[in-house]
Amino acid sequence: MWSVLLGALATLSTVASAIPTISAKGQKFFDSNGAQFFIKGVAYQLTESDPLLDNDQCRADAKLMSDLGANAIRVYHVDDGDHSGCMQTFSDAGIYVFLDLDTFNTYILEDDAFWNQTQLQAYSAVMDEFQAFDNLAGFFIGNEVIQMGNYSTAAVYIKSATRDLKAYRDSKGYRDIPIGYSHADISSLRPNLQNYLSCGTNNSVNIDFFGLNAYEWCGDNDFQGSGYATLQQQAMDYPVPIFLSETGCNKPEPRTFQDQTAVFGPDMDQTWSGAIIYEWIQEANGYGLVAYDSALTAGTATIPGTASIPRSGTPLPVSPDYSNLKKVWASVTPSSVSANAYNPSMTNPPCPAYTSGVWEINGDASLPALGETLNPQQSASVTAGGSGPAPTASATQSGIASPGKVLVLYRIKLSAD
Question: 376: which residues sit within 8 A by CB, 6+ positions away?
Answer without folding.
Answer: none
